Amino acid sequence: MRWAPFELDPESGGGDFVESMHLLAFSDQSAPSAISIFVYLANKDMGQKSFANSDGDLLIVPQNFPLTIRTEFGTMFVRPNEIAVVQQGMRFSVDFGIQEWGRPVSFARGYILEIKGNHFELPYLGPIGANGLANPRDFQVPTAWVEKEHLEKPYEIMIKFQNELFKTTQKGTPYNVAAWFGNYVPFKYDLGKFVCVNSVSVDHPDPSIFTVLTCPLPGKPGTALADFVIFPPRWECAQDTFRPPYYHRNCMTEFMALIKGQYQAKGRAFAPGGASLHQSMIPHGPDKECFEAASSQDTSTPKRVADNTMSFMFETSLTLKLTNWARHENVDQDYHKCWRGL
Questions:
Q1: Side-chain half-sphere CA neighbours of 234 within 13 A
Q2: Strand-strand pairing, 187-190 and 82-86
Q3: What does the record give as the active site (predicted)?
Q4: Would you kindly state where each structural domain of the chain is located, as residue ranges?
Q5: Main-chain phi, psi angles of 299, to 5 degrees
């Protein structure tokens, strides 16, 4: 299944980060471990509103516009091509400042992966050793900050609990922590700092070599509740090899989207701001155009791929169910045609 770029419905009037979250797909929410995937289409700042997710952690991927995340630990400015993780129970607000930027962007778009039952961690590197992929030194955490101008002003507090939203008000900002210590904190990461690992001889390593963060599935060692994977600019140099991602069926469910550029194995119909979803054991792979070009490619010389491009994948061992909104919003009814003639 594939979606064209998600657009803000002009009749809706838009909303802030929380109001504009559209649920696309979700696993069994009654299970101890679960995930949900959202897209946000926002055109307003949260202002004197604060949100906390009691259900799990949120991984946020801005696509077309930067965002400022105010948290109890400090602020994070997150640009497209960066990600942020706000963990369970942390209060935060998202501001875009669209009017102040003066750019021809009418709304901010991005993706959210929610995980329940565990937390993100760096993948086990095994024979890679101590360095490679996403290095710990490149993750950034906020510095303590107090929102002094709102110390006495009322704040609306929103809590998501068991997938329901509860609201109350409090006197004064929740962002009043003058100092903190510990390791349970929000953080951000620049995807441009990812250190790629790949074959320098023949064939393909598994796509797990592109894992930025993983969330292990409790009780099943070696199985991921969710992986966050990227396909960044890199060199390809495998000889006598079909270099693009090969045709396959996978025990994992793959939700993929494009932040910018054009993905190697798909045409322009897979555009920034859209998405695709391949459920467990559904065969998929490069389109006809990519197959024909790669099949006649000279593999005796290295080649750059994905320059000025960044695509990513939310991957899970769970089966996902689509919402009614996802089944009807900007669905590409001709997706299957990209494989005709193969």
A1: 24
A2: antiparallel
A3: 204 (proton acceptor)
A4: 2-339
A5: -95, 10
Active site residue 336: no
Distance, CA of 171 to chain centre: 34
Is 254 flagged in the annotation as binding? yes
Radius of gyration of the chain (CA): 21
Q: CA 312, CA 69: separation in Å to the nearest integer?
A: 21
Rounded CA separation 260/191 (Å): 12
From 62, 72, 74, select the one nearest 17 (Cα to Cα). Answer: 62
Mean pLDDT by 10 residues, the chain (342 residues): 92 90 97 98 95 98 96 97 98 83 74 98 94 97 95 95 97 96 98 96 92 97 96 96 90 97 84 96 92 93 95 98 97 92 87
Catalytic residue among 119, 150, 204, 336: 204
C-beta atoms surrounding 313 within 10 Å: 20
Q: Are strands 211-216 and 224-231 parallel, antiparallel or unpaired?
A: antiparallel
Tell whether residue 82 is among the known ligand binding residues.
no
According to DSSP, residue 208 is labeled G
CA–CA separation, 317 and 281 (whole Å)? 11
Residue 128 identity: I
**Does 336 appear as a known binding residue?**
no
Find where tokens 């669905």 sit.
331
* β 49-53/154-161 pair status: parallel
The annotation status of 248 as a binding-site residue, yes or no, is: yes
What is d(CA 82, CA 78) in angstroms, rounded to the nearest whole number? 6
CA distance readout (Å), 339 to 260, 261, 287, 288: 23, 21, 5, 5
- Classify 150 as helix, strand or coil: helix
DSSP per-residue codes, 224-253: EEEEEEEE-SEEE--TTS--SPPPB--SSE
Full-model pTM: 0.95
Q: Give residue-wise pLDDT tens across range 250-284.
A: 899 999 999 999 988 787 789 999 999 999 999 99
